[in-house]
Write a structure and sequence with these properties.
It is a single chain. The chain is mostly helical. The protein is built from four helices and two strands, in the order ααββαα. A hairpin with an 8-residue loop joins strand 1 and strand 2. The longest helix is centred in the first third of the chain and has 19 residues. The chain is elongated, with a radius of gyration of 19 Å. The two termini are about 25 Å apart.
Length: about 120
């Protein structure tokens, strides 16, 4: 996971961890207990907030190609751009000046497949 996050994202995650620790120390946030009804959900949200968990949901309208995706958890631009590349674009959108093509080309650059 560490190799996915940029230095800024790592710093944001560190600040979130510190905030969570401070809130726990002040009694404003309790540690989840296995006996809690929503224990799994609490642990999952803590893992999201602390950058230990990213959930990726892929969508396919035709069950053949990825038509969309969602990410849950800490922001990870590297993974986001990889998913944009993985999703691809419709060949009909491959027209110079089309914003969809421009976004896709940007994702290819940011994911490391093309150089500017």
């Amino acid at each position: 996971m560490n190799s996915l996050y940029s230095e800024k994202e790592k710093a944001d995650i560190d600040r979130m961890r510190e905030c969570i620790q401070e809130m726990r120390a002040a009694g404003e946030l309790l540690l989840p207990q296995p006996s809690d009804e929503d224990y799994d959900l609490q642990v999952r949200y803590t893992n999201f907030a602390e950058g230990r968990l990213i959930a990726v949901i892929l969508e396919s309208i035709d069950r053949q190609y990825v038509s969309g995706f969602q990410m849950q958890g800490a922001m990870c631009e590297k993974l986001y751009h990889e998913l944009k590349v993985f999703k691809g674009i419709d060949p009909a959108d491959c027209v110079e000046g089309n914003p969809i093509l421009d976004e896709y080309l940007e994702a290819l650059v940011k994911a490391g497949y093309l150089q500017e």
